[in-house]
Write a structure and sequence with these properties.
The chain contains eight helices and 59 strands. The protein is mainly beta. The longest helix is centred in the first third of the chain and has 17 residues. The chain is globular, with a radius of gyration of 25 Å. The relative contact order is 0.14.
Length: about 900
Amino acid sequence: MAGDGFRRRRAWAALFAASAALGLTVTQAQAASGTGVDPFGVRALREQAHANQLKGRSALAETADPGDPGGDEDESGNIAEQADQYAEARTSPGVVAPGAYGAAYDALSALPHTDGRWRDVTRLPYDSDDPRYRDISSNSSGGAGRVTGRVTGLAADDHGYVYAGAANGGVFRSRTGGGHWTNISDGLPALSTGDLQLDPRGRLWYATGEANTSATAFLGTGVYVLDDPRHGRFAERDRVGGDELESTSINALRFGGDTVWAATTHGVWSHSTKTLKGPWKLQFAPNPDYLPGGAKAGEPSAPYKNITSDVAIDPKDPRKVVLAVGWRSGDTYNGFYTRGAHGWERLTGLGDLPSDSDDVGNVTFARSADGSRYYAIDQSPAMTASNPDSGLAGVFVSKSGSPTGPWTRIADHTRLRDSGSALTGAGYQPGVQAWYDQFLTVDPKNPDHVYAGLEEVFETKDGGADWTVPGPYWNFGFPCWSIDPARQSGACPPTTHPDQHAVAIGSDGGKPYVVVGDDGGVFRRPVDGSANADGHATDWTSLNDGTMDALQYYSVGVGIDPAARGVAVSGGLQDNGQSILRPGDRVMGSNFGGDGGDTIVDPANGCNVAAEYVYLAVSVTQNCAVNDGSWVDDPSKATSYSVAPPDNATGEARFIAPLNADIKDPDTWVAGGRHVWTNTKGWAIRSGSEWFGAYDLGEGHTATAVASSGGRVYAAWCGPCNNQGFTRGIAVGNADGTGWHQLDLPVDGTVPNRYLSGLAIDPADSNHVLLAVNGFSRKWTEGPGAGFGHLFETRDGGTTWKDVSGNLPDVPADSVVLLKDGTVVLGTDLGVLVRRAGSRSWKVAGERLPTTAVLQLRTGPDGRLYAATHGRGIWAIDPRRLR
């Protein structure tokens, strides 16, 4: 089993510190059975930390990895792999043209609604440190406390108002310095946040389209402005300009004079702040031929040819502007640009701040209020590719106050590592995810007081001479930590969730505070807060009180709770593990850590849960993973078991790989990587070796959706899955390995050459199958074989298919359910659509469901239909009301 997966391993403690909260590909490092290593990582980390503490050593002292002969791979590269996969479903085999989402939203808005009202099931606090769930695979006791989904935009004023932009949940407002949140953007066609800024007039600017190049980033529909953010709500009429910034992502908005600048994935644009009408002006695109409509727009590299991350404006002269341009993985156009005699010209000679293309990647600027300082964070593509510990070129300051410098380096990853970081092990140190994690701000009252966000929150009060880590990655490994629920996290103070994205400084009643946004929501502390001897803040407050349900679910599972009347609802989350909500709970708990992928829940017993980490790292529990942490001293008391199929060890599965139970036999499971794996032991499975390899999809192919009924299995796949030679197909066979064959799906056939995202089998006839197709039609997708339609049907086991999309809006489809009465329910990037049996027309399902991506639909034993949204939690509705 010493394949590619083992070459990804490092010393256990460092590796698992890197993986358990983020969802890195540590699972590829483990064999499917016999290793005794839990794929979620916390077990190995805690056991090593516990052993080291007993020996009087540092809790994160490294342990040699006998499985690694020296061929280490950079874990940050694995996250970059993740980052591409989510976008592939929506863009392959081409790129999305401007106007796609706007047209889809308009078409959807024109449809009638059915009866019924959705209920937000998960609109209550979610405690990542819930002491009930300290089993072997949980992150509970890490110190982040109450969390929600990723927050990528923040703004705050001096009257206690805080505005938070969720990754795919829209904008929330708080009048109390955070908490008691109200959504103010549900009237918009896009809820994906790129940036959020208050301008000098007090208007709130909302840039849509998350631009951190992560896997779960959605495109936007432009920029919107709210004149009265304390009382108003965003509406479509608030959009600035035309559709120039549709189908783009916006990394930053910056203001200079009467102009707003937007750094986007399609170059740098500007617009007047005096009048919001009229088109945006393209200021600079390094490779304009690759923009939508350009001569090279259809080439595979087009999405990566005009990426910009930030704009710096000289405080003394707003006409002097510096653009930070470049793709995180490197390109010849990467660099800093300013206006010269011949237009935009590349800057060199900036001092310590690199200007060569190899060392300019993702960049964030921040300016002091008095104009005396400019600060910058720079990610180096060269370091990201070659340095196993970090991709951070450094943190820099221009003491002239000019963005042209000269710049001086005030921190690199080793200096930050040695300042109290939790990330000290080889293979994962500060800045290893600098392409994804960045924020930067300056205290308005002190130009030398800076907060910098990478994986952790860093602070300097003397312009970079000294640094501390007020928000460490987590508390695991520190001497103060304890898994004992009676001691919570021991003597460790609460910290923030890892992975920092946004920051703002505001005040209320003259008391200034800093708020940070990360993969776990929003956290606040006083600007000049308190800290312990290690420099870790003692005064963080989680602002995630449940009123901002921005949780990013990949999946949902529902089962009758064995200990109470009602159902238990579970779901896998981006970077927030697996949530579980049991009857009577006022706070959800987290019973599995890391990224939570697909989920199987026993309808008859909601405490029987199979949870995927990533890359098919499946674990199973039969008691909801209830545990007091006593397994640390007595391993036999663990009640969760690693049962990862073999494709987990070889890396031949997608980041979020499909996992499903047979709709007629809940003890038969199907998992998809390169192979189709089946398990017929159900909840009694205890080892990855107990999976049966039913079928090999073929080298380079990997499953995107699986479904099974009475042992009849359908597996959709892609490979290559990006827009360079994109192919897809469907294989059909039996769970026992017999009767397998590939269906004939020619590229120019009825089923388009796009990502196949969902399958639903008619329980009355296993030859009757519905297929959901992601992406956009050829009208909006530039590339070969885009095709049309989003829902297809076969009644002969896949021999022939029919496009049954009808008047379905042209919007990416993610999940499909066929109800008992023949009603078809489709989860899309913009909500849920319904077509009753015998009808040819679609309707929007019910009322109140936000316009966000619905990645999975499931029916529960309570008869309700559940929707796992990737940005606004889990919602439920009575399907009998969908008329």
